[in-house]
Task: inverse folding
């Protein structure tokens, strides 16, 4: 009995501390990354050389200032012209062009409030029938794909766990997906927690049951 109680206490302690430690580690990594912005300056103009000491957090503040100033410049006419010139230069470099355009389109799709990318959480049968995976709708397929397949297709991203930044891009028929009412944040928590945080709402479960019945009928 004491052994079970001790084990439950240890698990409860892990549940409390692991998210705190993970949050601290991630924030520390991000702060250290931003703090290294100072290294972009010539050594003679870095705080260690100017005042003889390092200023913790100076790089973070500097990064925020750079982002703010870039945003201000990029939203006026002159700044937009400079951005277009820079993009035209990058567009002439084959390998760099592909990376830049892909990164830009992805960020615009995620950040844009008008975009539906990653706004819809789906259930799809993957990697085979009867096994369901969480997915995010990233858009609709191209006209050519729909014409070739004769089906209305959707583009989806199936994240891996516990690292949702990697995954698989797939195009599947719209009728084969089950749309959930859970938010993107809830879905990410579900993926990152290895399914520990159960957040699939009742509406999604009902849709899943209907899809199972449909698949059973098709097999018959």
Result:
């Amino acid at each position: 009995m004491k052994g079970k109680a001790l084990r439950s206490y240890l698990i409860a302690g892990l549940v409390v501390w692991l998210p705190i430690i993970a949050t601290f580690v991630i924030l520390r990594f991000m702060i250290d990354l931003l703090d290294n912005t100072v290294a972009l300056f010539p050594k003679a103009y870095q705080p260690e050389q100017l005042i003889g000491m390092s200023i913790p957090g100076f790089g973070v503040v500097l990064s925020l200032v750079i982002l703010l100033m870039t945003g201000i410049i990029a939203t006026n006419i002159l700044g937009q012209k400079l951005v277009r010139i820079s993009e035209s230069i990058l567009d002439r470099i084959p390998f760099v062009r592909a990376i830049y355009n892909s990164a830009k389109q992805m960020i615009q799709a995620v950040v844009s409030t008008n975009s539906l990318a990653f706004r819809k959480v789906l259930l799809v049968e993957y990697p085979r029938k009867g096994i369901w995976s969480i997915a995010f709708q990233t858009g609709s397929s191209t006209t050519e794909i729909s014409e070739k397949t004769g089906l209305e297709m959707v583009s989806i991203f199936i994240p891996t766990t516990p690292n949702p930044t990697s995954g698989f891009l797939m195009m599947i028929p719209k009728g084969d997906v089950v749309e959930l009412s859970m938010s993107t944040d809830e879905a990410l928590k579900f993926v990152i927690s290895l399914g520990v945080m159960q957040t699939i709402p009742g509406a999604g479960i009902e849709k899943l049951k209907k899809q199972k019945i449909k698949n059973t009928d098709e097999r018959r």
Q: What stands out?
A: Residues 45-111 form one domain. The beta strands are 120-125, 132-140, 153-159, 167-173, 177-180. The first strand starts at residue 120 and ends at 125. Residues 102 and 108 are 10 Å apart (CA to CA).
